[in-house]
Design a protein that fits this description.
Chain lengths: 284, 86
């Protein structure tokens, strides 16, 4: 079996290039942002690009999902709609909000963490559905492709900045500026403090980087993996390779859709809750 | 592809970049692999000992999984930066 596979692989690699597969393929080109509708306000570039279009679509779908699952009349015997809505609500309540937020702040911050979880989940999932939004045309017909808005660092950094700002705003609001910033200083010998305090301050900013880069790199790497494996056909110019390449790409696709998409949305929301919660109730 | 060709034609800079990229991603994946293995092995042990805690542990497990997994991507990002900038 293995030998037969190897023979087929060797034949596939040696097979003459298929004419239809000719052309340069570069997976990184999929992530370039073209300005579809340029909007420039002074130094600000607010143009509508591919990522913005996906974000808008994601926003509409998130609202639709919320309205569809939550705004049904509560029945004695819940239907499928209500069951899904309650399942989502329970994950947001039990697994995300109650893990990180103290009881006194849940009422205020549950909407934020639940929204960010649903929104990232929808935008991530949109990234794995082929849509005619690539901005390229083939004989006048828009080509279909996969792209996730969250595989752009600007998007995830904006989301992480929201959490970052809310964290410190809440920390100062509940504890007052002096007590809050004092809580950053850990208990340690005086001589070590000069070394530890800059690290703690740096750590606050590292959260921003780790929160945004985790989501961004996960989605980017997932897309690049799938695109590279399919693109191997075009780089080596052999359609026979499809026998190997498409199953591998499909496995990665299923892995991304089934696990990574939901985990990343959950993690982002859970960490936001933990950060905000730890600012509201510092340990010392 | 270009870096593969460059390695045989004597363009040492490009070859070095390719090695750096591969080492960065590979070592990152090594560490994350060990870490993720640890998390799931402790999860299996804890569930085997106290199956009733499964629901509570699952949230913590996925949190740990995602935090560990992200380490690969820091390595990936760093090595891509090195590959592009140097």
């Amino acid at each position: 079996m293995v030998r037969r596979l190897l023979v087929v692989a060797a034949l596939a690699l040696a097979a003459p290039p298929v004419a239809s597969a000719r052309g340069v393929f570069d997976p990184t080109k999929e992530f370039v942002q073209h300005e579809w509708i340029p909007i420039h306000l002074g130094p600000l570039n607010l143009s509508i690009t591919k990522a913005v279009a996906y974000l808008m679509l994601g926003t509409v779908l998130t609202i639709a999902l919320g309205v569809f699952t939550m705004r049904s009349r509560f029945a004695r015997l819940p239907g499928r709609r209500q069951t899904v809505g309650e399942a989502i609500y329970e994950i947001a309540q039990v697994q995300v909000a109650e893990q990180g937020l103290p009881a006194k702040a849940i009422g205020r911050w549950f909407p934020y963490v639940a929204t960010i979880m649903l929104f990232i989940w929808v935008v991530n999932l949109l990234g794995f559905i082929p849509l005619p939004l690539t901005g390229e045309t083939w004989h006048g017909v828009p080509t279909w492709g996969i792209y996730a808005a969250t595989s752009s660092l600007s998007v995830t950094l904006a989301l992480a900045l929201l959490t970052f700002v809310f964290t410190h705003y809440e920390g100062i609001r509940w504890n007052g500026p002096v007590r809050y910033f004092k809580s950053w200083i850990p208990e340690a010998p005086k001589a070590l403090l000069a070394l530890i305090v800059p690290l703690e301050v740096l750590g606050q900013f590292m959260r921003l980087i780790s929160l945004s880069v985790r989501l961004f790199a996960n989605m980017l790497a997932g897309h690049i993996l799938i695109l590279t494996f399919i693109g191997l056909m075009f780089i080596l110019q052999s359609l026979v390779l499809a026998v190997f390449v498409i199953p591998i790409a499909s496995i990665f696709y299923v892995f991304e859709v089934a696990i990574v998409v939901s985990i990343q949305a959950f993690i982002f929301a859970a960490l936001s809750a933990i950060y905000i919660g730890s600012a509201i109730e510092p340990e010392h | 592809m270009n870096s593969l060709i460059a390695a045989t034609s004597g363009d040492v800079t490009k070859a070095g970049k390719a090695i750096g990229l591969a080492l960065g991603v590979g070592l990152g994946a090594l560490g994350a692999g060990v870490g993720i293995g640890n998390i799931f092995s402790s999860m299996i042990q804890s569930v085997a000992r106290q199956p009733e805690l499964r629901g509570e542990l699952q949230g913590i497990q996925w949190l740990g999984f995602a935090l560990t997994e992200a380490v690969v991507f820091y390595g990936l990002l760093g090595s891509i930066l090195a590959y592009v900038l140097v």
